[in-house]
Write a structure and sequence with these properties.
The complex is a heterodimer. Chain A is an all-alpha fold. Chain A is built from 20 helices and two strands. Chain B is mostly helical. Chain B starts with a helix and ends in a 13-residue tail after the last helix.
């Protein structure tokens, strides 16, 4: 008892900047509100014949809150760098940039999700939204974490929600398989990362990542092994080769909206943490080893991702391998030792609008054609669904990196800054990879506009996309155009100017 | 021997490797999940060891109780993960009456 009082006397109130905690508060509130309003106790997840498909009533609440959250982030002026919550969270532009992108992903997912649930006759729309909110809460937390404990908490929060989102249509073989594979492999990766945190704690006696370097104990083998384990765990979440083997299966089997969401948002969160760790490592000792790993794996995943994507017939699988290639481009930023986090965040933003847009268009095309899409199925779709197909083509052009779409600006700044350092190998490999990528992106886009074969029967007309999910697709297309013509809007905001 | 950090660290590394090997060679998802739990618990053991035997000249904001605190966080998270994981395994079992992961082959390419 006495010791407790002795501690209480020296207790200092925690320093909390509540304004910076608004995103976490909003997302946490949304999870709770959605669960309270939407949880149903009926057993069957399937809509019966004749029953009106259920639209989650919480959808408008969620959409409005997320738009408000985007407004909060984007209205931020100044680039104050600080620590919050007793040093547990960073509040800097990197955290805010990641927050914007994750919130935007979540907004697009909840707008487009109900359409896909309706197509699969699933009435768990409320739970879908709750899981999306919970996982974005985890991602935002992880992206702003300054303590390994918070990193791990955020990581597991979003991973557990994503396991459930992958297996969201348990009646489908592919969805079950995707959830199972993601669960086993991803929790193993989390365990590896946790062991890395334990070793780092042992080497430095601290769980604060910004403190580890300062302890002067950071050059031991224990520290090196811990860092390598942590980086391996992060590279797994980023789907960088050779830790990519789960990505095609999981992305193909998961509901398409979930794939759209997770393929970008997990990359944002994991890359932000990776950037912070690389910054902390410095360039000597363990930093050199990790740098070598990053350079070689970046090159490997650019080449492997693009070559494998060329060989794919399934559209979602092709986009999954393109995600592996894009993870390779993203790794160029932490692999090159200059402060280019603005180029990295711009690339992430352009990748977001292109990739999420492409997946959402594929989801709508799937609902329209009533089946999983092979690349040949897209043939001649333009005549029947010009809006979906036009957006898909625009997003594919952006992913290729052709001007004036957003993807060009992303690659231009990323490769440009890398070339300016004089380290030419990685950006050159990136350019070669982009040329390879053009073969399948543009090939698919051309497929959309060619006339359907003579005599091929008109495939069954399925579900038309709803206005809400068309809005989501429209946001992506607008993003592709705006970021393509005015990337400075994002860069200026990121630099704190607006 | 039991009073030195080396003993516990070697034990923790052995448990971690055991979990990793189990994950790779076993084909039953329940056993694979148990292996993952072993890996998490190996990390817990390492945290407790390092908290009991901190590095000599440590300077930190935190206190030696960071290690046990982390351990409790991990235990809570592992419980949440177990709930979701077992639900996933049961869903698979209900639909195909077998849980062998080698039978999961509908996604390929």
């Amino acid at each position: 008892m006495l010791t407790i009082f002795a501690n209480a006397a020296s207790f200092t109130p925690p320093q909390i900047e509540f304004y910076d905690l608004i995103p976490l508060a909003i997302l946490g509130f949304l999870v709770a509100a959605t669960l309270c309003l939407e949880l149903k106790d009926d057993d069957s997840p399937v809509v019966d014949d004749g029953e009106v498909p259920h639209r989650p009533s919480v959808l408008s609440l969620g959409a409005i809150s997320l738009v408000a959250l985007l407004g909060y982030y984007l209205s931020y002026k100044g680039s104050a760098v600080g620590l919050n919550f007793n040093g547990m969270l960073y509040s800097d532009m990197l955290a805010r940039g990641a927050g914007v992108l994750i919130t935007l992903c979540a907004l697009l997912a909840i707008l487009a999700g109900p359409d896909e649930l309706e197509y699969h006759r699933n009435k768990r729309g409320g739970e879908f939204c709750a899981l999306i909110f919970a996982s974005s809460l985890g991602m935002v937390m992880m992206a702003s974490a300054a303590n390994t404990m918070v990193i791990f908490l955020g990581l597991e929060l979003f991973s557990i929600a994503l396991y459930l989102l992958c297996i969201f249509f348990p009646g489908r073989e592919t969805s079950r398989e995707s959830g199972m594979k993601y669960f086993i492999l991803s929790s193993a990766a989390s365990a590896v990362m946790l062991y890395g945190f334990a070793l780092l704690y042992g080497a430095t006696g601290s769980t604060w990542i910004y403190e580890m370097r300062a302890t002067g104990l950071a050059d031991t083998n224990l520290y090196l092994i811990g860092m390598v384990l942590v980086v391996c765990g992060l590279l797994f979440k980023l789907a960088v080769a050779p830790f990519h083997f789960w990505a095609p299966d999981v992305y193909q089997g998961a509901p398409t909206t979930v794939t759209a969401y997770m393929s970008v948002a997990t990359k944002v969160a994991a890359l932000t943490v990776l950037w912070r760790i690389v910054e902390l490592l410095g360039q000597q000792g363990p930093g050199e080893v990790v740098n070598l790993v990053l350079i070689s794996l970046s090159a490997l995943s650019i080449l492997l991702g693009n070559f494998m994507a060329l060989a794919q017939k399934n559209v979602k699988r092709m986009l999954a391998y393109s995600g592996v290639a894009n993870a390779g481009y993203l790794l160029i930023a932490p692999a090159i030792w200059i402060d280019m986090k603005d180029a990295m965040m711009l690339f992430l933003a352009t990748y977001l609008v292109g990739n999420v847009g492409a997946f959402l268009a594929v989801a709508q095309a799937e609902a329209y054609c009533g089946k999983e899409l092979e690349r040949e199925d897209l043939r001649g779709l333009f005549q029947r669904q010009p809006w979906i197909t036009g957006s898909l083509a625009l997003c594919l052009v952006s992913l290729t990196g052709l001007p004036p779409a957003a993807g060009f600006m992303g690659k231009f700044f990323l490769f440009g800054q890398a070339i300016a350092t004089g380290r030419l190998a990685l950006p050159l490999i990136g350019i070669v990879g982009s040329l390879l990528g053009a073969a399948y992106y543009i090939g698919t886009a051309i497929q959309l506009f060619t006339a359907p074969e003579e005599g091929s029967e008109e495939s069954q007309i399925g579900q038309e996309p709803s206005t809400v999910s068309q809005t989501a697709l429209g946001i992506c297309c607008a993003g592709v155009v705006v970021l393509g013509f005015a990337p400075n809007l994002f860069l200026n905001w990121f630099a704190g100017g607006l | 021997m039991a009073n030195s950090p080396e003993f516990f660290l070697v034990l923790s590394a052995l448990i971690f490797c055991l979990g990793l090997i189990g994950l790779i060679i076993r084909r039953n998802p329940l056993v694979m999940f148990m292996s993952i739990e072993l890996m998490l618990n190996a990390a817990n053991l390492a945290f407790m060891t390092f908290s009991r035997f901190p590095p000599a000249n440590r300077v930190s904001l935190g206190s030696p109780s960071d290690g046990p605190a982390f351990t409790f966080v991990v235990m809570t998270i592992a419980a949440a993960e177990a709930v979701v994981g077992l639900a996933i395994i049961i869903t698979i079992f209900r639909n195909r009456h077998s849980v062998d992961v080698d039978a999961l082959t509908s996604l390929k390419g």
